[in-house]
């Protein structure tokens, strides 16, 4: 385990109300697991076991993915981009379920 730092900046261009930006917004993970996986998701529930010590997950779907994806069957995730899930250090879950409307190849998972 090692200390990891994540910094996210957002720039949105072309809004009617003008361009917007936010960040960088830093987050530090004192005991990041650093586990990296590439997984193929099947249609339906995909149960991901949270590695020991992990308190966050960066999940990146392929840019050409057209399948819908839901976290725990409720929250829609970015289907052709990435989503960052911060579980907090006190009680990270034992597993995370991501539901897919179809098969998705080469989903990248980076556990922090």
Report on the structure:
With 112 residues, the chain is an all-beta fold. It is 0% helix and 59% strand. The chain is built from no helices and ten strands. The strands form three sheets. The chain has a four-stranded antiparallel beta sheet, with no helix packed on it. A four-stranded antiparallel beta sheet has the order 4-9-6-7, with no helix packed on it. Strands 1-2 form a two-stranded antiparallel ribbon.
Write the layout of secondary structure elements.
Elements: E1 2-12, E2 20-32, E3 35-41, E4 44-49, E5 56-60, E6 69-71, E7 75-76, E8 82-86, E9 95-100, E10 104-111
Antiparallel strand pairs: 1-2, 3-10, 4-9, 5-8, 5-10, 6-7, 6-9
Q: What share of the residues does DSSP label as strand, in percent?
A: over 45%
> What number of structural domains do the residues give?
1
Using the CA coordinates, give the radius of gyration.
15 Å
Counting DSSP E segments of at least 2 residues, the number of strands comes to 10
Structural class: mainly beta
Mean pLDDT: 89
Biggest beta sheet attributes: 4 strands, antiparallel
What is the name of the CATH architecture? Sandwich
The share of residues in helices is: under 10%
Widest sheet: strand ordering = 3-10-5-8
In the CATH hierarchy, what is the class? Answer: Mainly Beta
Q: Name the poorly predicted regions.
A: none
Following the backbone from N to C, one meets helices and strands in this order, namely EEEEEEEEEE
So how many helices? 0
Alpha-carbon distance between the termini? 9 Å
* CATH topology description: Jelly Rolls
Shape category:
globular
